[in-house]
Write a structure and sequence with these properties.
This protein is about 65% helix and about 0% strand. The chain is mainly α and about 150 residues long.
């Protein structure tokens, strides 16, 4: 007869850490999907975008579209890795969110309000991924044991 190993019930600290990681994962997924849509709109040269003259970081609208599309696809992939609380995904999530902030700052004149919203969301993602310590994480992809209240 073999005993099945039981996992101890997660602590409040682990619950908070797992919740912040889940928040970052979902928000990074949303930011990625929205960046994909923004990239597609820019590649199609939609009339939503504002055109400005004499902007220091001026690229062709299609170039910005490809940049946002690539960042969006990578962000969606990394968000899936965050659900498994992988350390590579946490590091990549911070890097991708930072690149999304930079890309949105540089493309600010083309779509100003949306760029500010994306910068704020990416800042929240970076905060959520950096505030959690590695030892406090509970794997979000596994079934959690029942909690005794």
């Amino acid at each position: 007869m073999t005993a099945t190993p039981t996992r101890p019930a997660p602590t409040a600290k682990q619950d908070t850490a797992s919740g912040l990681t889940a928040f970052a994962s979902v928000m990074l997924f949303i930011v990625g999907v929205l960046d994909i849509f923004r990239g597609i709109m820019a590649i199609a040269e939609d009339d939503i975008f504002v055109t400005t003259r004499n902007y220091v970081f001026e690229f062709d609208l299609t170039s910005w579209g490809w940049i946002h599309l690539a960042l969006g696809v990578i962000a969606v992939i990394v968000s899936i890795g965050l659900l498994q609380t992988a350390m590579w995904a946490r590091v990549a999530g911070v890097v991708i969110a930072g690149l999304v902030i930079i890309a949105n700052f540089l493309s600010l004149p083309y779509y100003p309000v949306w760029s500010v919203v994306m910068i704020a969301l990416s800042g929240a993602i970076i905060w959520a991924l950096c505030v959690v310590r590695r030892g406090d994480l509970f794997d979000l992809s596994e079934e959690r044991p029942p909690r005794n209240l």
